[in-house]
Amino acid sequence: MSSSPELQPYRRTFAVTLALLGVVALGIGRLTFVQLTGHSAVASNSADLITLPAMRGSIYDQHGYLLAASSLVYDIGAVPALVPKADKGVVADRLAPLLGKSRTELFDLLTADATFVQLQRGMPAEIAKQISSWKVPGLQCEKRSSRSYPNGTLASAVTGFVTDEGQAAYGLESYYDEQLRGCDGRRQAAQDSLGTLTYRVQAPVDGADLYLSLDRNLQYVAEDALARAVASNDAKQGIVVVMNPQSGAILAMAVMPNFDPNRRQNDDPAVWNNAAISEVYEPGSVFKVLTIAAALDAGVITAQSTYYDSGSITIGGEVIKNSDRAAHGETTIADLLAHSLNVGAAHVAGRMGAIKFYEYVQGFGFTRLTSVDLAYEAAGILRLPGDRDWHESDLGTNSFGQGLSTTPVQMLAAISAVANGGVLMRPYIVERMVQGGKVINTVPQSVRRVVSAEAARQTTDMLVDAVDTVMTAAIVPGYRVAGKSGTSQVATPFGYDPDLTIASYVGYVPAGAPQLAILVILHHPVKEQWGTTAAAPVFREIAEQGLTMLGVPPDRAQAGQTAR
Amino acid sequence: MIRSQSRTTTFAHSMPAAGTLVRQSYRLALPSRMWLYVAACLAAVAAMAFLHLTQASYVAAQVEHMESLERGLLEIKQHNNALRLQIAEYEQAARIKQRAAALGFREPERVEYVTVTVPASYTSMKGSAWDPSQAMSSPSSQLPPWWIAAVGQLSAWNQPPVLAPANTGP
Asked: By the CB < 8 Å criterion, does B159 face chain A?
């Protein structure tokens, strides 16, 4: 190359052009790289809003036992046309033990004349990985988030469930859906003034974990005892609610028949309803506890009062008789409760007068929601003076729990008010909510004082006497038990059914400082139709085991000084 | 352009022998400066474009990485939940009851509640919680608190079971 000065401009121009071409080549190279490698990310993010899913919170019992959680599951499906004909038999053979279906059923599905067939839903990752590793054309494993309930049917009425589409239904899942669901995050692509790609990112906030007041072990005991009682009495339905009367914390809530929230395909949707809060019933004689407590508080009667029981009483033109159809003569209030005398209850209510009586009934929370934190609570039905359909005779029938309807949780909350020295507490089931590092504790709420502590104590003493002398099926050795049975008739559009009953038992223990208030209801029992014989043994079983679990010492000296 | 043409004319008059070559070199030399400016501008634009693309691809790569991390995090969380669910299934009350029965455990037939005498050193401590620092500095006792507690517990066990008085809570 000559270095003549004449050629210098050429060289400079050539060098600059080369440098320029190099820069352009680099630019093109980089652009190509971006197009080839980063294209999908840029393309997918440049315009659309990307949702970052939040994890649904878990549900635990008071001891931290897991009751519900979300996890990844796989739906196994197939496109029959793509599965090689010769392999279908072998594939069915290999799938059968993994999917828990018969070989014939799977083979039929794989040979079906359909575009797509679902072989099994909700399989764990290990099985999906195993199936994917076979690399059989046409077999598909679709990933999705699923809600699982590891205890199966246990507390299913309380938890409710989440559908495969992610819709919360019933129970806690529905009531706390917003808190459990959390908040999805998002990432949105945007361009600044220079056209540079930027991203706005909002991290997802996982749902809160719920820790319940429910005791899983007590729940198991309650469900076990109730299931046996329903089966042995051929009852249509059974309900148990266990509450701490001092705080309103629900410790167990069982409904039979129950359901498995993991497998609901063949369920009658009626079983998903939590009958303990959503269905109303006529409480019957257990209501007499409230009538007496109210009358004692109002000063209409005293613990030593007596009345003359002639076997019937007429209120508002309606004749009310005792369930035994007998006349008991001069009767104490304690005997009224012990023998569950309708005439006595109507007599006491009559002495109180309608206005006062219904004031107390409303004070105990009837006709209003208890505000328990579960979905679909019902308020109950009660006709009040002044209502178009209220009749004077209602005062008599309402005094012993007929002609009005209430939910089991409402009934137990009212009885718990007597157990709690006359103070009504709001029932609750979520003890604390944990979101990230933030803990929100539920503080027990007293709704109002309904009756005086003295009236409550006197009522309790009478109920303890009633258990000790008459309702011995509810005795828990070593403990003072306050309880009352109820056997109500079942209302139909044509009056009360002569054959059907609702047998119930409500009580609390230890009577002096109650830790457990328990309500047992059996709908339409066939073998034992009375509350004392059908429901009281269930109460006793739950109370006995519950007291042992909670470590509650006996409150009464007992022969042998033992308690089981 | 008018100025360059006039200069060319001037040179042609002064150096007629090499007129053609000189005329040509000046024709190239003058636009080459322009070329330099253009080239510099182009280089600057290309560099900016390059920087822009680099930045864009860097952001895209970061987002992709972030996305994969997010996916990983979600899968780990879900997997963690799956393991928790598996543990919960093993912890089922019915399963434990069955297993306990198989191992020969039975439900208790007699539950005895004993009244335990709380040692004085406990009551003198602040609150109900164990506070070794206070216990150690307590002038009332030369013995370590754990020893007092152990002796108190043993003597309580030696006594026959006594039921709690009526109306006593847990």
From this structure: no
